[in-house]
Each structure stands twice: as C-alpha cells, then as structure tokens.
Amino acid sequence: MLPPNNSLTPNLLYSIFSAMVLAPGILMAAQSQSPVNWSADGELLVTIENSRRILKMKDNVRISQDGIDISGDSAIFEYTLDTQELLRVTVLGTPVRYTQESESSTEPVTGNSDTLIFYDDELTEDTIVEMIGNAFIKSPSSTMNCTSIIYVTERDLIREAVGPCQGALTSQNGM
Amino acid sequence: MAAAMHRPFTYLTIIGVVGALYYFSLDLTQTVEETRENSAAPELEFDGYSEGINTVVYNDNGDVEYTIRATRQFHMKDQSALLEEPLVRFFENGVSTWNIVAESGLVGGNTEASARLMESIRLYGDVEVHRLDGFGNSTVLSTQLLDIDSNREILETQDTVNMITASIAHTGQGLFADLNRDEIHFHSENSGHYESQGNHAASEQ
Questions:
Q1: Cβ separation of A35 and B199 shorter than 8 Å?
Q2: Cα–Cα distance for residue pair B123/B142, rounded to 1 Å
Q3: Could you tell me which CATH number the domain at A6-164 has?
Q4: B176: nearest CA in chain A?
Q5: CA–CA separation, A102 vs A118, rounded Å?
Q6: I need a surface site. Which of A78, A117, B161, B181 has the fewest CB within 10 A?
Q7: Residue B40 three-state SS
Q8: DSSP-derived pairing of the beta strands A52-65 and A86-100
Q9: With a CB-CB cutoff of 8 Å, which residues 115-174 of chain B face chain A?
Q10: Beta bridge partners of residue B146, listed in sequence order
Q11: Tell me, what DSSP letter sits at residue B111?
C-alpha cells in the first residue's frame, strides 16, 4: 500500500486508479441525457455565439444532475442551435466545488479546481468531468492532486491526468 | 319636587349626548368622504374609440419594421392609446421574428406620466413573447408587465419572467432583451432546468 501523499508520475497514478475503479462497488453516477438544474444569484445572459445557444450566469452558481452537485462563481452552458441539446457546461470558481453521491459508500466523491467542464462523451455517452487548474479529487478509496484531471463519473475513473500529481490510496481497497 | 330638581341635569345630559353625536357624525361623514376620495379609481377619459386596429410601421427602407394590432383601442385625452388584447409583431427582412401578446397595453401620451411612453408600449397582464428561430424551435417568454421600446426593439421589465424552449425552462427576476442582437438578460434570482428533447420524446411514448 502506498503511504499518503506520495509523489507519483501521472501515468502510474492513472494506471492505479484505472485498476481500482474497475473493482466492484463503483459509484452511482449521472446518466447521460439526465436533466440538469441550475441556479444563480446574479445576471444570466442568453445569446448566440459561434452557432451555439449560450447561457452565461454568475454569482453563487449551483448546478446539479442526478447525484452530482457543482458550485462556482460563474458558468457557461452551450447548446446546439438546431436540436437545442446541451453540449457542455463550463464552470469557473475560486474554486469550483464538485460532489458526487456514492451508491456503495456513505462518503461522496468530492473535488475542486479552478475550472470544471462537464459533457457527455460522444462515443461512449459517459459523463466526463474535466477539472483544470489545481485539480483535486477525493473518493472513498483515494485522493489525487494534479494540474488537471479528466474524470468519468459513471465509472469513477480518472481517464487522464496532467502532472505534477500527488495521490494516496486508502486501505479499504484491499490493495 | 325631587323630579323638578333633577330636570335641569337631565336636560344638560340630553344636550351633551346630542352634541357628542353631532360631533362624531360630522367626523364620520368627513372620514367616509375622504375614504371615497382615496378609493376612487383615476378617471380615464377617452375621446375616441375604435375596433380592430392594425398599425404598420415602416423603416427608412420602406420595409415593415413592426405592426401593432388590437381588438379595441381607446384614444385617451392625454393622447395615449389604451389597447385591448394587443399583438405586437417585429419583422426582419419581411419575416416575422418576435410576436408579443398581452391582455392590454398603453401607447404614447403627452402627460408627464405618459411622456416616457412616447416611443414605447407598455403591456399588462399575461404578456407572452414568442420567438420562432430558423430551425423551427420556439422560445416563449412570459411575464405580467413588459415595456417595449419599439424603435430600438428593446424589451424591459422588473417583474418575474419565465422562459420556455424545447429543452429549457428558466425563471429569473427582471429582464432586458435586445431583439436585434437576439440577447436576453435576466437580472437576478435565476433558476432553470434542462431536459433533453430525447427524454421528452421517450417520456411521452
């Protein structure tokens, strides 16, 4: 078992996390195309930019989708013009806070970063969360700090991480 | 003998009671009159009336800029016009872009209160703004009071506004919309909901 706060290369961490998340008891996560709710205390602008319908909101922004909650200072929602499908959401904050309920554990997955982008993967239809800048994620089984992290919510999988990274695994994984 | 002694006192008592009743009745009458004055609705004096009006406003190029229809119009003495069931339609290149309906509306006027409305239309009651984009997608804004600057094609309100599109339901406090730029600003207290049209279709099956 790794001691806490070991400095690891991103590739090594990536391999470890990938292996961990394929274990049973993975988290319940947002389903693709699930409804999304939002609220913001400040101004909200609806406009068209680059052939996309854009919603920009600011001040105490809160976004939720199934068991996922995100809060930040401002957010940008991007929709297709023709079908009005939600393409992606970009949240900025100091920091952006991320919480995802866990089905198998009482502890949620939590994280924070300077910027967070979430969208559905076009091929797999998984929900992807990109944490960019001072990215940190903590699940019941591990913690990880990187410059940026790409996380697949349905699989509790860190798909990519840009270093330098630090991480730790907890003993409850049986590893 | 004793009765005769009490008689002056009785008279004084009666006079006192009558005086008090008279005093309070005057005060009561005055209060009722004041109440009537306060509760009276401002009198709307009109000097003209028409039904089924249809006003067409053209731009410098001779293209239709916007039209105003109403089932009835009362021309008021302050030169404003009260509209019943108004329909305001904005056009771009001859195509209707934004359609706005309400229960009633007020246009123009030359009193201090209505001078601000010279180039604007104030709509009241179940105001709905309809927009159909090039893909056939509908956007509907609804509120209870809306000011339209018809020359600048600006919509404004401080009331609560609901916005419904095919996939979005949103509510915000206060609105500023620039129809030319296709921009809508909600001022504060925003909350909304997105649901994929695919989900809508699935749930309806």
A1: yes
A2: 11
A3: 2.60.450.10
A4: A45
A5: 18
A6: B181
A7: coil
A8: unpaired
A9: 133, 135, 137, 163, 165-168, 170, 172
A10: B123
A11: S
- Model pTM above 0.95: no
Q: What is the rounded CA–CA span in Å between residue B156 and residue B148?
A: 7
Nearest CA in chain B to A88: B194
Nearest chain A alpha carbon to B137: A82
Which parts of chain B sit beneath pLDDT 70? 1-44, 109-119, 199-205
CA-CA-CA-CA torsion for A35, A92, A20, A9, nearest 10 degrees? 160
| pLDDT tens-digit map of A37-58 | 999 999 999 999 988 999 999 9
CA separation for the pair B171, B173 (Å, rounded): 7
Question: Which of A45, A99, A46 minimizes the C-alpha distance to A72?
Answer: A99
Nearest to A88 by CA among A60, A50, A40: A50
Closest by CA position to B79, among listed B121, B103, B108, B119: B108
Tokens of A148: 């940026």
ipTM: 0.79
- The single residue listed with the structure tokens 């996309």 is A52
* B201 interaction partners in chain A (CB closer than 8 Å): none
Q: Which helix (H) or strand (E) is B23 found in, with range?
A: helix B2-39
